[in-house]
Amino acid sequence: MHVSFLTMARIAKLGWLWRSLFDVRWRWNGITRYETGRDLFSLDRDKWLTAMAGGVQERLIDRRIHVGQQRSEGVEHLPDMVAIGQRIADVIAGIWAQMPKRLVILSPLHYVSQYANVLAVHEVQRALGLANVAIVSGVPRDQYGSDESVTPGIEILHTHGDGMRNSLGIRLARSLRRDRVAVLFADAAPYSMQKYPMDTVEVSMLGRPSRIHGGIFRMGQIMDVLLLPYYLTFERGRFDVVLFDPVELADATAPQRVADCIGRALTQHYENNLFAGYPTLYGFAPVR
């Protein structure tokens, strides 16, 4: 709690360098993260250490935010996150000013930290004055202790080890109708759902044939939903957000537009991608 996020980023790099001296698996995991970004996503050479230590940094940020929420006995309002939440909320408010009943799915991409993304959603919820927001999460429960204090007012629709996965779409649709806003990570990589093969759709990403999850687009066609993609950044100890234009999910071009957002994020901030180090990423998926 007494360590700044800038210091935490430095600790992550030093920690990775120290352990990599004697842990071969640790060292090659970092090298794979960097070389994948360099070869596939044009990662700059000067970001090599940030990419290699990305996994360590993610876990440190997760733990810091989790502890901060528990100590605060509610939501810890970090200034960066307050500003991020307000920016996202302003976009949604603008959409509702023109179309009051429009349904919006927020789609944070997998960057920086899952708990940081949840904290940003809290700030969006607060800025819009919403009592509840549902979020589809594939993260295991209670990794750093009880998540209950970290997620007040957020309905977690888990897919990891959840016995009710088959009704996930129905539960998300109900929550979306109730609150007009829900959260779903539309950039979930096919490799991450090996136990439950994804229903994917074919797209082109950075000039290569790729596949992304297709379920969100079916829901969008049925319910006429607007998707708002964005991703968090973390540089010099500060959080920020990159917002993309909203995507009409009922439009036939929606899958490719989402793929373009994912591709742009990978080329701009691959070093903070939570899936870094998996060369297949969006290049292959089982099809059912």
Automatic annotation (TrEMBL):
Superkingdom of the source species: Bacteria
Name of the protein: Uncharacterized protein
Organism name: Dyella telluris
